[in-house]
């Protein structure tokens, strides 16, 4: 029986209480799991922005990692998770222990409750969309008409109004994304056909290939923080060509410029880039495409020269390939509706009413998943040292505004049975985002961990390896 550690693009990571089996059994909707019954543990920590992070971690911060129980400090600097993820020779609970901690209530799925959450998100999205379509559009036209030759202040006011509209509507629509996410995990209700239909409709309306994403997301959970076989937000190594290029680019631009560009590229282009060519996907699978269920050449392992003796296709077998094509039909149907709308009302109206909130929803999706699995003191493991338990327990919980938690259905950590493995970073989101964007782009090996570092202790060796690789590439072409 395979296990998935559940986290949400539209929400925070859901800890032990959110695990489910792939054989069909599942757990209660994410927002109810921690409040449903028996305590998992006598120890509780606040998560998702509720309360303060009062527990202190006493791990030494300035000692080498050569002895068990010591913190690894050969990294750029430590983040805000308490540093326990960087402890050398750290032990992890067994799968049996994890399963034993799950309350029975977490396996109960309420269709009525799930529909209530999904319905709230859909209705709010339609409401704000209607306000933009009818009233904000008319107001914008009126302001332009009444202004003297399109005064600068009028244009600025219109831009501000549409930006606020996009921020609010896109944030609200992310709640519908979360509901579809639960469908993809089999957590929405007991009727698999019904929940897949609901998830398919919700995701298609947001131009997401539902079944394609369902498969890649399952791989993501099955290989979380795996350096070679992970899926989404898999870092380059400092010893690879891509990693060396990132390091050189970082040194050339400087911290601030590189960080700003990295955050911009992730939030604006990250999601479509992942769907189209598998950006930040598992290197062992090579380039992937969520709309074309074909393999575009086998990738390479980053941490070892060994090859996998198993299929590395993201969509193995004809059934998954057929589901990818079915997902395409849903996205094409939505694109057809948008085309018809543009023919009727004009492209500009479609772009501001639908397109701008769509970008904001994508930003939330990338923001959540990026910060859940990435920070300067969150390691990755190679094939020799990785295990499912390690990857699942390296997910970071972060504080988001209460209104965001409400709109995204409070998917987050409420209780934990393993407090020593619960990673909560109280750093404000904007600061954590900047820290990740400016520092997390290449990892290097320290012991059995692969950690982010902008430093390069073996720079000469890396430079030579980079130049040799370039020379080989020139000879090939």
From TrEMBL:
Quote the CDD domains the UniProt record gives: Delta12-FADS-like
One of this protein's GO BP terms? Answer: lipid metabolic process
User: Which residues does UniProt assign to the signal peptide?
Assistant: none
| Domain (Fatty acid desaturase) ranges | 162-412
Give me the ranges of the annotated region Disordered.
28-56
Transmembrane region positions? 115-136, 157-180, 192-213, 257-277, 324-342, 351-371
* InterPro entries assigned to the protein according to its UniProt record, in alphabetical order: FA_desaturase_dom, Fatty_acid_desaturase
Keywords carried by this UniProt record: Membrane, Transmembrane, Transmembrane helix
The Swiss-Prot or TrEMBL record annotates one GO molecular function as: oxidoreductase activity
Among PANTHER family, the record links this protein to:
OMEGA-6 FATTY ACID DESATURASE, CHLOROPLASTIC
Q: What is this protein called?
A: Linoleoyl-CoA desaturase
